[in-house]
Design brief:
Layout (H helix, E strand, L loop, with lengths): L2 H8 L3 H9 L6 E2 L5 E2 L3 H14 L4 H6 L1 H4 L6 H34 L15
Antiparallel strand pairs: 1-2
Keywords: DNA-binding, Transcription, Transcription regulation
Organism: Pelomonas baiyunensis
InterPro entries: DNA-bd_dom_put_sf, MerR-type_HTH_dom, MerR_fam
Length: 124
């Protein structure tokens, strides 16, 4: 299918599709007239890419998992490990953000509304 058709079927812009292709996440054959020709599987693949991005995976992480996806049904254990690593990463980021929030809230509470010292100075 040509890029316009793939764009319509996936809701992605042509520029996004070209970007994915440059990053190696999408492959197209070139027809005799030079147009990109995408396989039917590209629609499903791009759905996977979008879902993975919504789950917090970077394009680099998605690209690294390309060999994993080739395993098909045998990918279960490796996929579970990948998802567990991402979950641990998100948990660590949440913990760090909670600590940051606590520090910011403390500085806010210690700052009078009028004419006080800067709350961004190092804590004593």
């Amino acid at each position: 299918m040509q890029i316009g058709t793939l764009s319509e079927r996936t809701g992605l812009s042509r520029d996004s599709l070209r970007f994915y292709e440059k990053r190696g996440l999408l492959q197209a054959r070139r027809s005799a007239n030079g147009y990109r020709d995408y396989p039917e599987e590209a629609v499903q693949w791009l759905g996977y890419v979008r879902t993975a991005q919504q789950l917090g995976f970077t394009l680099a992480e998605i690209a690294a998992d390309l060999p994993l996806l080739a395993l098909g049904e045998d990918a279960g254990p490796a996929l579970r490990a990948t998802l567990a690593r991402k979950l641990a990463d998100i948990d660590a980021r949440i913990t760090a953000l909670q600590g940051l929030r606590t520090e910011l809230a403390a500085r806010l509470a210690d700052t009078p509304e009028v004419g006080a010292s800067c709350p961004l100075r190092p804590a004593a």
